[in-house]
Write a structure and sequence with these properties.
Helices cover 52% and strands 8% of the residues. By secondary structure, the protein is mainly α. A hairpin with a 2-residue loop joins strand 3 and strand 4. It is an enzyme of class 3 (hydrolase).
């Protein structure tokens, strides 16, 4: 994850990386935060990975303030996950609901997994509905089906399908 000090929660859209608007970053953070929760003290997630804040795994494992966690999430969305999603599926620039849903998926499964995913392949083929429906494949942690992931993927899928005819 990006260093939490490299970005401010009040960054303007002019400061955002190409392809992301402040509205998309704000919507992504608002969508992701309730699913991830915020834990100020490091803990082991379902897969046994040390985690802190809102699912951060690539930062120093120490106690963080709520403000630090909020900044980390916003920075991760704008500088890492939003960018990897747009790199994998450039057509999402013109589809904010699908972009927000995809950023949430990538935040949870990782950029590499998103880039190789059926969802990304179907989006790039122009099959937007099938791409959204492919989100539901990502419901396992450490080889076990997790109801919380089932619920999250269904919420992401519904957001992704929004506005598609």
């Amino acid at each position: 994850m990006a260093d939490s000090s490299s970005s401010s929660p009040s960054m303007s859209s002019a400061a955002l990386p190409l392809g992301l608007t402040a509205a998309v970053v704000t919507a992504s953070v608002a969508f992701i935060a309730p699913w991830e929760g915020t834990r100020l003290v490091p803990y082991r997630d379902l897969a046994g990975v040390w985690t802190v804040c809102s699912g951060e795994t690539r930062v120093e494992m120490r106690r963080y303030s709520r403000a630090e966690c909020d900044t980390m999430l916003r920075t991760a969305v704008s500088e890492t996950y939003g960018q990897c999603v747009l790199k994998a599926v450039p057509g999402l620039r013109r589809r904010p609901d699908q972009l927000v849903a995809s950023i949430s998926l990538a935040y949870n499964i990782g950029c590499d997994a998103f880039e190789r995913s059926t969802a990304a392949r179907r989006f790039n083929a122009g099959d937007w509905k099938a791409g959204c429906n492919a989100f539901t494949k990502w419901v396992y942690s450490a080889g076990k089906r997790v109801q919380g992931l089932v619920n999250r993927r269904e919420a992401e899928r519904k957001l992704c399908l929004k506005g598609l005819s």
